[in-house]
Design a protein that fits this description.
The structure is a homodimer of 231-residue chains. In chain A, strand 1 (6-10), helix 1 (15-25) and strand 2 form a beta-alpha-beta unit. Chain A has a single domain (6-183), classed as 3-Layer(aba) Sandwich (Rossmann fold). Chain A has helices at 15-25, 42-55, 68-72, 102-117, 139-152, 170-179, 202-214, and strands at residues 6-10, 29-36, 61-65, 121-123, 160-162. Helices cover 36% and strands 10% of the residues of chain A. Chain A is α/β, with parallel strands linked by helices and 231 residues long. Chain A has seven helices and five strands; from the N terminus they run E-H-E-H-E-H-H-E-H-E-H-H. In chain A, strands 3-2-1-4-5 form a five-stranded parallel sheet, sandwiched between helices. The longest helix of chain A has 16 residues, at 102-117.
């Protein structure tokens, strides 16, 4: 039995959540949470999650389906009638892939689980600066959510959300992953495809830019590789 | 078509959410949200929800299943191995029926839906003073959640949670329901049974006390009726 405190890590299967798990693993006993929300690539992401959980010997894993986000719609990730737009990573607009209030739904599940298993930390791989501009990826959102946890759980409960990579640029996340020997080859970031990453959606573009600026080759393959270093 | 602003009301099917819907109906076009979370009485509650939605001619209804709360466990409402305790409505302890962080999970769903359909208000029938002492039924929790909504939704989005009965005593909720001609006979509050209300669980006890102090007969039947007026 581990004597370390327990932390829940939200692991989508993407690079950011993998590196976040690698950071949490330095100090905590990991409980890994994966959430399907009816997104296009959910089977591939679940495969990535299980590969990552196996790598970290995380026996305590919870896979939850919240397909109501697809019922509710409003995002190209869950609504097949809205196209996943090609990346425009300098745009100030919130992209069509934004799933309304998604991260609050996910954090609420994590807090419910944390309260039951006695975890003191919830790690999430949100990225604020070098991101797609989703409102629920900003530190101000997580600070506000920590106040909700304080107000909405039992008095003896202490659960804090940690966002260790929120201020990092993507190339810094790649480097941090390499330093921590995170299995980057097991992760999956593409929003569009499940066989070979498309290379052009927001998520692929940001990931590729990160590897290119870090001067490291991405171990996963792509259908199309553009040079994003100056984007 | 209605010109009124849209409000989402969380309708469990209980008396509190019914009276909350009656209040929201005075001013808003109603969109009704019902959430199954694997609780013991979910079929009966869904029936109550549909009866209430029919009564208010609410065509826009969303029924969502979040059975992960039962997967997570930790409550007598969702975990069959924990007994639903008999009421001790003066106890300072949080009862076994507390579902960890349940209301945050429900509100997050409501906010996702509100952002997609353009609703400006979310009504929830939380009761603070005359309640079972759940931490997520306190106004401080809803104030904190409103800050999370502000931080975590698109800049042009304005959604506010309203808790119109949070400071009322149960007998005042009964009277308000009568005034607004809310169909109290359609509501269901019992945590334990689906055929005839048990009369002894926390929820039945609080409801019965409310009717008894209001001097009004509850239109639903009970297996056992105790005098709760002095509890």
């Amino acid at each position: 039995m581990s004597n370390r405190d327990k932390a829940i890590v939200l692991v989508s299967g993407g690079m950011d959540s993998l590196v976040t798990a690698a950071i949490a693993n330095e100090k905590y006993e990991l409980s890994l949470l994966h959430i399907n929300y009816g997104q296009r690539t959910q089977n591939r992401e679940l495969k990535a999650f299980n590969g990552i959980a196996d790598h970290y010997n995380a026996d305590n894993r919870l896979v939850v389906s919240i397909e109501y986000l697809a019922q509710i719609g409003g995002s190209s990730l869950t609504d097949r009638s809205i196209e996943v737009s090609a990346a425009d990573i300098n745009s100030k607009e919130i992209p069509t892939s934004y799933v309304p209030f998604r991260n609050a739904n996910m954090l609420s599940i994590a807090v419910s689980w944390a309260e039951v298993i006695g975890a003191s930390r919830i790690f999430i791989g949100a990225v604020e600066e070098d991101s797609s501009g989703y409102p629920d990826c900003r530190q101000i959102f997580y600070d506000a959510f920590n106040n909700v946890i304080e107000a909405g759980t039992k008095p003896m409960t202490s659960i804090i959300i940690e966002t260790p990579i929120i201020s990092l640029k993507k190339y810094e996340i790649v480097k941090r992953g390499i330093e921590l020997k995170a299995p980057l080859e097991l992760s999956w970031s593409c929003y569009k495809n499940e066989d070979i990453a498309c290379g052009v959606c927001d998520s692929c573009a940001l990931r590729l830019k990160g590897f290119q600026l870090a001067g490291i080759e991405d171990p996963i393959g792509y259908a199309v590789i553009r040079d994003y270093r100056n984007c």
